[in-house]
Amino acid sequence: MVSVFTYGSLMFDPVWSRVVAGSYERCEAILQGYDRKAVRGETYPVLIPSSALSQVQGVVYCNVSSADLARLDHFEGKYYFRKTEQIITEEKKAFPAEVYVLKEEYYNIISHKEWDPVHFCTTGIHFFLHSFMVTEKQ
C-alpha cells in the first residue's frame, strides 16, 4: 500500500472513482520542486520538474492498493513515469507518495499556460470524461 499524489483530473472524484476500485482516505497536499502545466489542446495537465521554490497543490490518496496502483499506471499511460517524492499535507506532515511525472521525450505537448483546476472542475471535466471514457475499472 502506497500513497498517491494527484495534481490534475484524478483530484476530482468523478475521475478518480472511475479509475480505482477501492475507497481511500484523502487530503490536500503540496509537492515542491515541480510545475503543473496545461497540455496543448487537452483539458488535463502534466507535471514537470522545476526549481526548489516551485510547488503544486494537489490531493494525496493514502494506502492505495497494488491493484489500484496498477489501474492508475494504465490510466496514466505511456507519457508518464511514476516516482516517489516527499509531499506535505496541510497539517505540515511530510511523507512519501507516488507521483506521475511527464517523460522528457513528451515535453513537446506542454502548453505555455498554467493548468486551471477551477476551469477543469466546472467545464473541462465533462469533456474529459466523455473524451477519455473513464467509465469502467479494469
Observed structural traits:
138 residues, alpha+beta, Hypothetical upf0131 protein ytfp, 3-stranded antiparallel beta sheet, 3 helices, globular, disordered C terminus
Count of beta strands? 8
Major sheet characteristics = 5 strands, antiparallel
Strand order of the largest sheet: 1-5-2-6-7
Radius of gyration: 14 Å
Strand content: 35-45%
Low-confidence stretches: 134-138
- CATH top level assignment: Alpha Beta
Mean pLDDT: 92
What proportion of the residues is helical, as a percent range? 10-25%
Give the termini distance in whole angstroms. 19 Å
Description:
The structure is a single chain. The chain has 138 residues and is of the alpha+beta class. It has one domain: Roll (Hypothetical upf0131 protein ytfp), CATH 3.10.490.10. The chain has three helices and eight strands. It has a five-stranded antiparallel sheet with strand order 1-5-2-6-7. Strands 4-3-8 form a three-stranded antiparallel sheet, with no helix packed on it. Strand 3 and strand 4 form a beta hairpin. The longest helix has 16 residues. The C terminus is likely disordered.
Compact summary:
This protein has 138 residues and is of the alpha+beta class.
Task: Write the topology of this structure.
Elements: E1 2-6, H1 13-19, E2 26-32, E3 34-39, E4 45-49, E5 55-64, H2 66-76, E6 80-89, E7 94-102, E8 110-114, H3 117-132
Antiparallel strand pairs: 1-5, 2-5, 2-6, 3-4, 3-8, 6-7
